Amino acid sequence: MTDPTPLSAITSSPDPHGVYRRLREEWGEVARVELEPGVHAWLVMGYRELLTITRNEHLYSRDARNWRDFQDGTVAPDSGLGPMMFWRANVIGADGPEHRRLRRPLDDGVTSIHQRRMRRSVEAICEELISSFAGRGSADLVAEYAQAVPLLAVAALFGLDAAEGHELLRALAALFGSADDSQAGNRRFEEILADVMHARRAEPAADLTSGFIAHPDLHTDDEVLQSMVVMVSAGQETTTSWIAQTLRLMLTDPRFSGRLRGGRLGVDDALDEVLWRDPPMTHMPARYALRDTELGGRQVRRGDALILGLAAANDDPRVHTGDPAAELGNRAHLAWSAGPHACPARVPARLIARTAVDTALQRLPGVRLAVGADEVVPRPSPWTRCPASLPVHFTTPLPPPGDSR
Q1: If DSSP codes are grouped into helix, strand and coil, which group holds residue 15?
Q2: What's the pLDDT band for 171 if we cut at 50, 70, 90?
Q3: Which end of the chain has fewer CB atoms < 10 Å from its terminal CB, N or C?
Q4: How does residue 111 score in pLDDT terms, banded at 50, 70 and 90?
Q5: Are residues 283 and 309 in contact, defined by beta-carbon separation less than 8 angstroms?
Q6: What's the number of CA atoms in the CB half-sphere (13 Å) around residue 20?
Q7: Residue 261: per-residue pLDDT
Q8: Which family is this protein grouped under (predicted)?
Q9: Residue 306 belongs to what H/E stretch?
Q10: How far apart are CA 308 and CA 327, in angstroms?
């Protein structure tokens, strides 16, 4: 066996699926990877193997306190992996009845979202962002649009204003990068949300923050805060990546770019293809083996970390034909993970992503990439492949609907 492949080298590769194929040839469906120098984990690439670990919490725990490399000091307390992998007292770090208790407020919060009202709010956010750069005839549709839309939309649900939303955005970018500034970004992120929580405890409002404070399944301020952390952070990074990857696809792939000139495939088709090929979370941390076991022909030791290779599992040749035309409308992908910890917010995420993509394409006639397609590269992260930038040119924008100018 060769040395373990760094996880970040997969997400930064121009051909991650080629890397997965090479790993499958060498390892099978469960491959050894490197999280940071000297810290290894199993990357679960098989569709069936991924379902096995996500549906069996009695053997594969979400509780990172079971991670042997952290227990024995191999992973330093100030590691850049911390914000994404260390245990938190929230729904992500719990199993069984405790997980179900902490999950209910999230499910109830998502159910309480008024979809028509949210769509109008997202449309207004998109229009305001586009208006800020429309006069230039050029923009970066990641920095100036894709990463701002979901953050501002989700922040508004929790009662944050635009300035607080943008500050959250900067903190989250550091957190998901898992680099030297990730711990500081995580601290600032929680401070901003804690300030909102304390303000709503003193003066409730019609928002999700107040709803979490009043929820009978959340017993302490820390549980309320951590529920806010999960919903905001998960919704932000993943939806940003989904929007950016869908815009990239529609601007570079003739099957979709033709849609701008009356072609066959549209926004929903592009959204679905991204979920298969470049899902919002490329690699999802993590499960921890509670005893020695075997998975995909590999001997997994108690305390080993297992990373969910969501993009790899979607590309598993045992379930994926490789023919996009034959899979239009197929949503059997694992982009949202599976089992008890599957994403609870896929409906509002799709609403935000579809509205953002559709609004940009409608409001920016003649929009085209300002660089070659091969120059669109992901920003550094072992977890996601969100494009670092998406520079575009366009002609004079159309006015917003109802604008008489």
Answers
A1: coil
A2: confident
A3: C
A4: very high
A5: yes
A6: 26
A7: 47
A8: Belongs to the cytochrome P450 family.
A9: strand 305-309
A10: 23
Interhelix angle 162-177/182-202, rounded to 10 degrees, is 150
How far is it, in rounded angstroms, from Cα 135 to Cα 144?
14
Cα separation, 93 vs 345, whole angstroms: 18
The structure tokens listed for 88 are 């938190």
Question: For 240-258, what is each residue's pLDDT tens digit?
Answer: 999 999 999 999 888 876 5
Q: Which pLDDT does position 404 carry in this prediction?
A: 47
b/e burial code for range 314-345 (CB count within 10 A of at least 16 → b):
bbbeeebeeebeebeeeeebbbbbbbbbebbb
SS (H, E, C) 167-207: HHHHHHHHHHHCCCCHHHHHHHHHHHHHHHHHHHHHCCCCC
User: Domain locations in the chain?
Assistant: 5-393
6-16: pLDDT as tens digits: 999 999 999 99
In whole angstroms, give the CA distance from residue 85 to residue 107.
23
